[in-house]
């Protein structure tokens, strides 16, 4: 039998959408992800968003956190017999995390606000019970409908003021709301705020995930809305060009840039209009280019110019209809860029009081191009300075283009005249030998008003220098020997390599990734250095390769798995002086394992169903993405049966979501009934995989059997079969296990793996196996078996089995009896656990003191069970300061951990439930004052943070309660401190010990 693909339903819905539903006035799909529009004007983001997975593997989405929102300038004209938009429909594909239902203060997800000033209450919301609506119109809970966390929905609210105000979810009418008056609260001005908390951001905007937004200038009918389908369904035909590259409004666009776009669904050719005049491009009828390619080469651009372009889509025969596109814009890169100057690298002949030379580079008083007239925002020399000067030291020698000077601009400038008048400019490479580049020039006098926006540009002639000194020859007053300047900016050609991808500090980079960078302006070729030794890269003794393009296949330098590498790019042009510009040293860390398949990208919808990739015995019928596949003739079935009403998984998930590896959200079910003696599922790789990259030597397959399973597990790599060599009974154990295969014993071309089969053999064998995390590791048998962690670097280990002894080293631990709390030993994750019974608001609980200084790079891992929830239920703190190196739980259940200036958070706990917590950190090599943090809960990476480095104290307190922190009421087990950051795989291994 073949699974039905619902192809007929897709065709019917597509026809209904084409025939009945009007084209939206605005559509935003977040596939970049950015706020650009598929149709209409781009959204304006206030705050920030986080990129996340959408409804399907191919769908983009964003998470909008508290305090952030979009301004939607919808472009709809007034209608419905009013002065505002009274007839409209809004579509939102959304989900939300569990924590949002209890997010302070009220656990609300605000959906939209019709008042552009955001002064009123939100106009639609999801409340803490998951009901959708608002009091004035009604809530879905009155009709027995509430939403659930971590589930995607297509919400449609349709409004015709004076007639209707109704809610639909996934095409189904939920309730007919109370209709509202024309031009009243639910009419739209020229902009709509999306996901903004009302009452000027009163906090009722818990995190929400959004995949698609659309808006119409009409109240859609029930038939229209039914045709729009469910979350993730395509609901309109894109007739116009969309998703431009460069994105609309981009700046700093390369001088040699090809313009591209996503063509309309039915376009045959494209007419491109391009120029420097918005009006000309908007009115143009004669295209600059026309053809079937969805790209356009505008030629070399001019520095700093704003360009406008439009793409009209011309339908294929027979109608040749032209769909006029929106006008997009971008700004070409500037000729030179500002070079930051550290405030400690500015010196002067003298300074009066707080008017230090640092004031000329710290941006104080400068907004955009306008400088204040506040004297506290400027440098001022002391009176009687006979040889006044200012000097700026850059981090390295540059090719300097100009300096901009905002002169002294106090309100007294007009009659005192501290501002510079005549100056000379000298430069130096080493700070010893100086060259005069400007013998004498005059700096314009500032007006002494807060609207001063005309800085003086002084040309430096592209001199090669690291130091710039302004020698002051006179001031505008001419009487007092005292001199002032508001701001100085230094500009140079962008001759260095910059903006690396992967970004410096990136983690989990594949060893065969292609690294790219923004090339230096004059570069002809590039020399790339890479090594695990940062000093070798910095001094140029590391291995290197040359490239004629601004990209490199890192595999050429043979990086290994699980290592931190440093790399730099030198820009080379033998025709210039200097001929080499040595780039900064960047860093990256390679993944500890290569993923063959983690099974996270599959779902219920085509083309992402698991059996469409892992072919099995059932096959599937044809649909819009795949032709019919009749099955492989074996007794294998991939995925749960979600179509048969008698199935326990009916209308659920094809993938297994409740029983997975730690840190994984889903596993692949493999059902087998060996009527023919074997059952197999096969995956063919479109591009052959190299299983030797990064020194990979072992293939690890995570599997979980079921009691009663029979048969023998095997895998076929290319055409080579490997039979499971472990205990044959493991296939019948309901626990996660690692099958580790030494690839050095596999007789096939591992540099070109084109297909793999997973299967079970044995006559009449049957059962169910879950597969998860097929990965490649370096070294045979290294760090592969879950539950067998590598204890390298483990310096503190407290099993807490009736005592607080450290079994890992001689670092001392002590149980301190407090006045306010108590402790006891209870049943733990493994053996016993230590229970503290602290009190809310008290600070002298029993604690465990550990005599250790944290390391620059390290990890803390532990099991914790909060037995009560209240604000600042302390888990861990340190002896340095009350707000440094600590963990706690809020009354809402939210966990937080911080080193100093910021916390890692975003996970909510429940009372009387065990959680595994791991926090790792690493002091930034390039910026020693910064430390990077990673938070894992139950083996899953929850959050990262960049914090200010602060030295830890000499004692760590398990249970908190010191330095004014509240007592802990909770249980601890298996507490560990490492002198290195754990990998996510190692964290998962620790988690598995408690399963």
Topology, element by element:
Elements: H1 7-20, E1 26-28, E2 44-46, E3 49-53, E4 60-64, E5 69-72, E6 87-95, E7 109-113, E8 124-126, E9 132-134, E10 138-139, E11 153-160, E12 164-169, E13 172-176, E14 192-194, H2 198-201, E15 208-216, H3 222-228, E16 242-245, E17 250-253, E18 259-262, E19 267-275, H4 278-283, E20 289-291, E21 295-296, E22 306-315, E23 322-323, E24 327-332, E25 337-339, E26 346-348, E27 366-367, E28 370-371, E29 379-380, E30 389-407, H5 413-416, E31 422-428, E32 434-442, E33 456-472, E34 484-492, E35 498-501, E36 506-509, E37 514-518, E38 525-531, H6 534-539, E39 543-547, E40 551-553, E41 564-572, E42 580-581, E43 586-590, E44 594-597, H7 610-613, E45 636-638, E46 668-673, E47 678-689, E48 696-704, E49 712-717, E50 720-723, E51 736-742, E52 753-761, E53 766-778, E54 794-798, E55 813-816, E56 823-827, E57 832-837, E58 847-850, E59 857-866, E60 873-878, E61 886-889, E62 894-898, E63 903-908, E64 915-923, E65 930-937, E66 940-948, E67 956-958, E68 969-978, H8 984-992
Parallel strand pairs: 17-24, 36-43
Antiparallel strand pairs: 1-15, 2-5, 3-4, 4-15, 5-14, 6-11, 6-15, 7-8, 7-14, 8-9, 9-10, 11-12, 12-13, 16-18, 18-21, 19-20, 19-22, 22-23, 22-24, 25-34, 26-30, 27-28, 29-34, 30-33, 30-34, 31-32, 31-33, 35-37, 37-40, 38-39, 38-41, 41-42, 41-43, 44-53, 45-46, 46-53, 47-52, 48-51, 48-53, 49-50, ...
Provide the structure class: mainly beta
Number of helices: 8
Shape: globular
The gyration radius over C-alpha positions equals 32 Å
- List segments where confidence is low: pLDDT < 50 over at least 5 consecutive residues: 6-19, 781-787
Overall residue-averaged pLDDT value: 90
The rounded distance between the terminal residues' Cα atoms is: 38 Å
Q: Quick one: how many beta strands? A: 68
Helix content: under 10%
Q: Profile the largest sheet.
A: 8 strands, antiparallel
Strand content: 35-45%
């Amino acid at each position: 039998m073949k699974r039905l693909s619902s192809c007929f339903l897709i065709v019917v819905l597509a026809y209904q959408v084409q025939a009945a539903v009007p084209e939206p006035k605005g559509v935003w799909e977040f596939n970049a992800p950015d706020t650009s529009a598929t149709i209409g004007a781009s959204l304006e983001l206030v705050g920030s968003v986080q990129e996340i997975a959408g409804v399907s593997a191919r769908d983009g989405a964003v998470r909008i956190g508290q305090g952030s929102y979009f301004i939607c300038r919808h472009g709809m004209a007034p209608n419905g017999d009013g002065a505002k938009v009274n007839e409209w429909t809004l579509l939102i594909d959304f989900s939300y995390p569990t924590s949002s239902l209890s997010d302070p203060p009220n656990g609300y997800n605000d959906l939209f606000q019709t008042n552009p000033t955001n002064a009123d209450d939100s106009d639609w919301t999801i409340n803490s019970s998951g009901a959708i609506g608002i009091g004035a119109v009604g809530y879905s809970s009155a009709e027995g409908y509430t939403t659930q966390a971590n589930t995607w929905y297509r919400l449609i609210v349709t409004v015709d003021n004076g007639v209707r105000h109704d809610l639909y979810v996934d095409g189904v009418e939920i309730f007919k709301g109370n209709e509202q008056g024309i031009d009243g609260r639910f009419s739209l001005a020229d902009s709509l705020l999306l996901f903004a908390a009302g009452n000027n951001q009163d906090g009722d905007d818990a995190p929400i995930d959004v995949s698609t937004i659309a808006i119409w200038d009409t109240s859609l009918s029930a038939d229209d809305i039914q045709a729009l389908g469910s979350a993730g369904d395509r609901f309109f035909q894109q007739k116009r060009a969309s998703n431009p590259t460069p994105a609309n409004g981009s700046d700093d666009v390369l001088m040699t840039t090809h313009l591209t776009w996503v063509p309309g669904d039915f376009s045959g050719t494209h007419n491109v209009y391009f120029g420097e005049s918005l009006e000309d491009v908007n009115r143009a009828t004669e295209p600059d280019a026309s053809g079937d390619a969805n790209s356009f080469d505008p030629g070399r651009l001019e520095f700093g110019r704003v360009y406008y372009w439009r793409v009209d889509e011309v339908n294929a025969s027979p109608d040749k209809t032209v769909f006029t596109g929106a006008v997009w814009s971008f700004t070409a890169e500037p000729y030179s860029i500002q070079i930051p100057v550290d405030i400690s690298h500015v010196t002067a002949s003298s300074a009066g009081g707080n008017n230090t030379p640092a004031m000329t580079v710290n941006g104080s008083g400068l907004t955009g191009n306008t400088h204040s007239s506040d004297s506290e925002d400027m440098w001022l020399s002391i009176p009687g300075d006979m040889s006044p000067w200012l000097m700026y030291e850059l981090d390295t020698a540059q090719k300097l283009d100009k300096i901009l000077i905002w002169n002294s601009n106090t309100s007294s400038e007009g009659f005192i005249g501290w501002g510079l008048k005549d100056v000379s400019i000298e430069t130096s490479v080493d700070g010893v030998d100086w060259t005069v580049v400007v013998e004498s020039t005059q700096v314009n006098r500032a007006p002494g008003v807060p609207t001063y926006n005309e800085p003086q540009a002084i040309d430096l002639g592209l001199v090669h220098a690291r130091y710039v000194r302004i020698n002051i020859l006179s001031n505008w007053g001419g009487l007092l020997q005292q001199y002032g300047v508001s701001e100085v900016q230094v500009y140079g050609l962008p001759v260095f390599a910059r903006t690396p991808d992967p970004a410096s500090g990136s983690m989990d980079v594949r060893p065969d990734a292609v690294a790219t960078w923004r090339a230096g302006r004059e570069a002809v070729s590039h020399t790339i250095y890479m090594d695990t030794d940062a000093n070798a890269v910095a001094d140029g003794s590391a291995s290197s390769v040359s490239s004629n393009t601004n990209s490199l296949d890192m595999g050429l330098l043979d990086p290994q798995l699980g290592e931190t590498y440093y790399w730099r790019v030198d820009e080379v042009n033998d025709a210039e002086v200097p001929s080499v510009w040595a780039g900064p040293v960047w860093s990256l860390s390679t993944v500890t394992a290569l993923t063959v398949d983690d099974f996270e990208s599959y779902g219920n919808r085509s083309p992402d169903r698991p059996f469409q990739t892992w072919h099995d015995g059932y096959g599937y019928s044809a649909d819009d993405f795949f032709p019919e596949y009749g099955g492989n003739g074996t007794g294998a079935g991939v995925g749960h049966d979600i179509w048969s009403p008698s199935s326990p998984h009916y209308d659920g998930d094809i993938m297994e979501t409740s029983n997975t590896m730690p840190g994984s959200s889903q596993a692949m079910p493999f059902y087998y009934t060996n009527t023919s003696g074997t059952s197999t599922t096969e995956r063919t790789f479109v591009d052959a995989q190299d299983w030797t990259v990064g020194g990979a030597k072992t293939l690890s397959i995570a599997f979980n059997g079921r009691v009663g399973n029979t048969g023998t597990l095997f895998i076929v790599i290319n055409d080579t079969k490997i039979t499971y060599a472990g205990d044959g009974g493991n296939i019948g154990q309901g626990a996660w296990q690692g099958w580790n295969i030494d690839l050095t014993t596999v007789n096939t071309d591992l540099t070109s793996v084109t297909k793999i089969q997973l299967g079970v053999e044995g006559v009449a064998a049957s059962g169910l196996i879950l597969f998860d995390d097929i990965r490649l590791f370096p070294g045979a048998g290294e760090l592969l078996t879950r539950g067998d962690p590598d204890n390298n670097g483990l310096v503190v280990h407290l099993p807490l089995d009736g005592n607080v002894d450290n079994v890992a080293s001689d670092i001392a631990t002590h149980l301190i009896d407090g006045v306010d709390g108590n402790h006891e030993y209870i049943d733990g994750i493994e053996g016993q656990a230590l229970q503290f019974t602290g009190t809310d608001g008290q600070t002298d609980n029993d604690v465990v003191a550990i005599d250790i200084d944290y390391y620059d790079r390290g990890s803390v891992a532990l099991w914790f069970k909060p037995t009560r929830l209240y604000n600042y239920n302390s888990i861990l703190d340190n002896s340095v300061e009350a707000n440094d190196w600590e963990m706690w739980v809020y009354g809402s259940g939210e966990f937080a951990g911080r080193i100093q200036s910021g916390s890692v958070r975003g996970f909510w706990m429940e009372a009387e439930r065990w959680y595994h917590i791991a926090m790792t950190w690493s002091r930034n090599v390039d910026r020693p004052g910064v430390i990077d943090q990673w938070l894992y809960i139950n083996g899953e990476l929850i959050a990262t943070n960049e914090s200010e480095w602060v030295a830890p104290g000499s004692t760590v307190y398990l249970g908190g309660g010191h330095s004014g922190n509240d007592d802990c009421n909770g249980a601890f087990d298996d507490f560990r401190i490492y002198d290195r950051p754990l990998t996510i795989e190692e964290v998962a291994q620790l988690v598995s010990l408690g399963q």
